[in-house]
Amino acid sequence: MSLQLGDYDYDLPRELIAQRPLRRREDARMMVLHRAGEVMEHRQFRELKAFLQTGDLLVLNDTRVLHARRFSDDGVIEFLFLERLGVKRWRCLVKPGRKMRVGATAKIDNVTLLVEQITTDGERIVALDKDVDLYAGGFMPLPPYINRLSDEEDAARYQTVFAHRAGAVAAPTAGLHFTREILSQLPHTFVSLHVGPGTFLPVRSDKIAEHRMHEERFSISPEAARKINNARRIIAVGTTTVRTLESASSADGKVPAREGATDLFIYPPYQFRVVDLLLTNFHLPRSTLLMLVSAFVGREFLLRAYKEAIRERYRFYSYGDCMLIL
After folding, report:
1. Residue 1 has what pLDDT?
2. Beta pairing class for 216-220 and 188-193
3. Strand bridging mode 165-168 / 188-193
4. Is the Cβ–Cβ distance between 46 and 183 less than 8 Å?
5. Helix H or strand E segment including 234
6. What is the pTM of this model?
7. DSSP code of 210?
8. 292 and 238: one domain?
9. Residue where a domain stops, chosen among 79, 102, 128
10. What per-residue confidence (pLDDT) applies to 198?
């Protein structure tokens, strides 16, 4: 069992971090990991159907990314608006934080924002002098390892084709490879987990068990629960889907229809109750996402696979290639 942060590290050449999506979603490469025998093979995402069996069900996260990134009128302050709390009140992150203490103000589109409160997580609760929709005119909040502002291409491509329920500030990136045509050929259902900024927060404790996840809201409809509980095998598309299913499940592995919030942190030696197969992208070193996948496939096998992916020049992270774990 590996519970030290340093056990989840690897070196990645910066040029392998995908800065733009491929021309076509389905053109991603797909590394296939067979847990039985610890075998790797190199395939294409469009071959996914070949690995499915009768009775399998893909479960995807249909959250929709908000255009949550805004800048103050003077360009000094960057905001990430996380949630509208009511008339003229919002919850957000700001950068640089030292300029937005309690009582500080800034303007967006000539609307004044006043910092009312700073939470224990460093988030700001701000009051506006006018009720406006701050997502209108905002930018897609690309991850910090994509070194540019979002543009019109990102507005379409940093969003899954099945995105439906608005509420995320990051995309469920394993779902970005699907086209409507491919999805129509596969048995599937949707759950929702609104990905929050905590997905990018580093693990700061050397002992990973001391890390605490931010809560994220999720929803499972009665129809989705019925399909999940009747499936022979569950293929989770992305780590957010894994956390949704495992958070909602009962001890016998059944998944009820429900809404709630989860701060579930999955790391070895977690025992999965619902998920049988996993489709996921490649994740950052020392990240909670890498730890979750390590719990599913085994840390040593996973890190060997990452070394192989680097040798084979796979594209990494949000706009990168994917991995199917059988």
Report:
1. 67
2. antiparallel
3. unpaired
4. no
5. strand 233-237
6. 0.94
7. G
8. yes
9. 128
10. 78
DSSP state of 7: G
Residues 110 and 156 in one domain: no
Backbone angles phi, psi at 48, to 5 degrees: -50, -40
Taking the C-alpha atoms of residue 246 and residue 192, their distance in angstroms, rounded to an integer, is: 13
Identify whether residues 229 and 177 lie together within a single domain: yes
| Cα–Cα distance, 319 to 321 (Å, whole number) | 7
- Structural domain harbouring 235: 5-65+142-325
Residues 38 and 172 in one domain: yes
Question: Token pair of 55, please?
Answer: 């009775």
Q: Which residues of the chain register pLDDT less than 70?
A: 1
Tell me the two tokens of residue 18: 């995908």
Q: How far apart are CA 11 and CA 61, in angstroms?
A: 29
Q: Is the peptide bond before 144 cis (omega within 30 degrees of 0)?
A: no
Q: How many CB atoms lie within 10 A of CB 30?
A: 20
The total of other beta-carbon atoms located within 10 Å of residue 86's CB is 8
- Residue 296 CB contacts under 8 Å (≥ 6 apart), including other chains: 242, 272, 275, 278, 325
Q: CA-to-CA distance for 37 and 40, rounded, in angstroms?
A: 9
**CA contacts within 13 A on the Cβ side of 294:** 28
Q: Residue holding tokens 């009582």? A: 103
**Rounded distance between C-alpha atoms, residue 83 and residue 101, angstroms:** 19
Choose one of 99, 128, 157: the last residue of a domain. 128
Q: What is the DSSP code string of 37-100?
A: TTEEEEEEGGGGGGG--TTEEEEEE-EEE---EEE-TTS--EEEEEEEEETTEEEEEEESGGG-
Same domain for 121 and 234, yes or no, is no
Residues 6+ apart with CB under 8 A from 122: 93, 97
Say if residue 46 is in the same domain as residue 156.
Answer: yes
**How much is the pLDDT for 200?**
72
Q: Does 226 reside within a domain?
A: yes
State the Cα–Cα distance between residues 280 and 65, nearest whole angstrom: 18
Q: Is residue 135 part of a domain?
A: no
